[in-house]
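Note to self: keep these together.
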Amino acid sequence: MCIFGVTDIYENAANDFLELASKQRLNILFKLLEKKSKISSMAKELHVTVQEVHRNFERLVNAGLIAKDRDGMYDLTTYGKTICTQVPALLFLSKNRKHFENHNFGDIPMKFIQRIGALAGGQPIKGFVKVLEQWKAIYKNADEFVYEIFTEVPLDLVEPLLTKVRKGIQLHYIFSESVIVPKGRRELLDKLGLKDLINKGLVERRMRAETNVVVVLNEKEACVGFPTLDGIADMREMFYSKDSLFHEWCLDYFRYCWYNSGSFQENKIHE
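Structure:
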């Protein structure tokens, strides 16, 4: 009995995937997510024939994804709306398939992977120099805070960041215990007055035993980078966006790591 039950579940899911395997039907679903529509209005909006849209509306109705109200307007069902929340994950993974041939999600908890569709609005940034320039832009644009999770600290990022902190923004950062820092870091931090900024409460630091996901964000934009397949943090490729869902995902992930990190231990950092 259990085997037949599982088979039925897969069969239903397979049928739903079949209904989603159409660019026009996906387009219809997301148009209806924005507002109700009649068949004729949808056809005009999509620049296709009424007959085409009617056929796809019928398929979506039969699949339980949309329904017609008393005024002849079509809208998403609860099931249809929920399906739409899952599609962005497929869009993100499909769009970045090449990236994930060489990268994985590292130590990210499953609850964040299940929300990975929130990153669908992110744009890839490739090249170490371009990545650093994007981080500097995030520092420059910050009005309230900068939050970071780092596994490697390029020396030329330290001064622009602490210069911004001296103007009043909050800096919270997390280091891996195996963080790579350049020679001369301590001298530069002393020169820039890090201890004074910590005493003023402008800088807070924590440490994790291990992390291989890199995050940099301010209050309105964010970057996230995933590790290579061998578990090494990749500073050469990132995803960046000002999209609110993208930002929320990065902020939630940073907070998760922050509250699951220990106290900062300078003696574990070796230049």
